[in-house]
Amino acid sequence: MKLDAPVTGGPCWTELGTSDLDGARRFYTRLFGWRPETDARQEAGGYTVARLGDAAVAALAPLYQPSQPVAWNVSFAVTDADAAVRAVTEAGGTLLLDPMDVFDMGRFAVAADPGGAVFQLWQAGTFPGAGLFNAPGSLGWVELMTRDPERAVSFYTRVFGWTVAPSDRYTQFGVGGADFGGMVTMDEKFPPEVPAHWLPYFAVADVDDTTAVVQRHGTVLMVPTSVPDGPRIAVLRDPQGAMFGVYRAGDES
């Protein structure tokens, strides 16, 4: 990721909705060396911020409704959540959760693109988002898995004004040309029951070592692979079923 801090239109945060908050805390602390801090306020509902040193890097939270899947979610920074929601619906997306204030930290909404991939909108108050990117244990890339790439490009460029670097192999998204993520077309290798989704990638010092840890406690979906002219990556699943990717720190696109 060529971004090193939250910027308008770019990914600013990632959070896990999980069926086992205590188990997730143990798993990711072991995997990434995170220091989890749970908000003690009853209204926070067990929301837990993971830190590396003093920097907030991600969050873990219980499932707040029965229909919510166990999954990692990606938030994109906006200056006005209400205006961003209008842009989403005008571009053909769906609003899943109306904008709401989160204490004095910011304003939050949940939406889905026309292909069904869920994402979050974050209007910063006192909390701008992650305090660290691209370092081991922190967010370093986000990837859209979609069955309709042309419609996805049209939607996200209209909503966020992203720049697009297309290629035959891999399309990348950016803010002002600073790439932060990419897009994969879901073909017949993806089971039909797997929905379109956003996949966060965390930087790690060693992809193979990280994968070995997950093999003991979770599931390996894609074994460590060196991408031609790109990073070494793997796609993994935690014990509760949430998917995420890892890549070797220093191999940013």
From TrEMBL:
Pfam families: Glyoxalase. InterPro entries: Anthracycline_SecMetBiosynth, Glyas_Bleomycin-R_OHBP_Dase, Glyas_Fos-R_dOase_dom, VOC_core. Residues 10-124, 138-249 form the VOC domain. This is VOC family protein. It comes from Streptomyces massasporeus.
